[in-house]
Design the sequence.
DNA sequence: GAGCGGATCGAGGGGATGCTTC
DNA sequence: ACGAAGCATCCCCTCGATCCGC
């Protein structure tokens, strides 16, 4: 949750758009902004979804050429089930770490690419080139993420692995509950 | 002013829509919501649901010019793009401090050069040579300003960082509202 | 560079607070 | 002597990678 300040009249306007009791500011804004991007996306009429349906997320990234695309991808992400079965089996948290990252990558390559831009104070955490990781730290112990072109740093305690996972999942736009599950699976 | 809470991804999305230096959340939201109502208004098949309440208009920017010269300079600065999106994300106020200074530098190099002539009672605050700063104090912890040839002192509390920023922005000719926003971004 | 996992501890940075100076 | 302004000490927290256990 973030806190933002807005002017009173704008606040009143937004509050005036409430459709259900208990709707949060986020809900209302999503609806309003979503209505906009729908209108931008096509001139066709589409009010079939008004009211009943759960609203898809607003894209988390600033507009690219592929607005509508991104929207679809996100809503699909939100409903995909992770395959946790094999993961719990893996003997070490490092193994589970790699497996979970692999699933995130498979979920959506392009979102993963944006989400994995994360580094510590000195080390690079992700890269497609093993050497980049080796170069950024002394003994980062990079390992390949299965079924992907990426490498990750591995020489961290479990808490940090969890943090990295959390960051990527969150940056990819997963829902809080899912992020929690992913982190717990580590 | 009212304070509202919104979810992180929505926040990021909104922040990503920043177009000008000094834009507040209100400004951005007004633009986004306005774009929507424009589309609705121009449509023959206007949907009563959305149009039920008038969108408050964006207040005109108060460009109080006594001096035409100054006006021109200011307006050129005031329309340059300022990217606040990445800044809020930076983990420490020192990081944000450096990022903000970097943007000010990029905004106008020569104005920045004039504006950064500021010092404390003992310490030099800005310099193009790290050594100058080191020489002027005991532990000033100089750091390079990204994308610029300058260094700044870093070992100060946040209030002083804000003061320095304020001074530079003001000396560069930004408007009061914008200076305020820059300082708030710290 | 090859054994691997990862907890633990130390280095280093951030910046509030207290001390000094005017 | 008292207050304001500014410096830098020092504590805390984050992050790296050593080193031990398996």
Sequence:
């Amino acid at each position: 949750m973030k806190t933002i300040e807005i002017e009173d009249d704008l606040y009143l306007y937004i509050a005036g758009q409430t459709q259900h009791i208990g709707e949060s500011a986020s809900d209302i804004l999503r609806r309003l902004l979503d209505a906009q991007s729908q209108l931008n996306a096509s001139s066709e009429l589409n009010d079939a979804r008004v009211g009943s349906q759960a609203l898809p997320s607003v894209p988390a990234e600033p507009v690219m050429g592929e607005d509508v695309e991104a929207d679809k991808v996100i809503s699909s992400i939100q409903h995909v089930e992770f395959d946790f079965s094999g993961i719990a089996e893996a003997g070490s948290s490092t193994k589970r770490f790699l497996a979970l990252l692999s699933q995130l990558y498979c979920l959506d390559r392009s979102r993963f690419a944006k989400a994995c831009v994360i580094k510590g104070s000195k080390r690079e955490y992700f890269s497609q080139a093993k050497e980049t990781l080796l170069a950024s730290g002394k003994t980062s112990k990079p390992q390949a993420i299965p079924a992907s072109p990426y490498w990750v740093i591995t020489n961290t305690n479990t808490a940090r692995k969890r943090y990295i996972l959390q960051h990527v999942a969150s940056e990819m736009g997963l829902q809080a509950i899912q992020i929690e599950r992913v982190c717990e699976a580590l």
Summary: Chain A is about 50% helix and 5% strand.
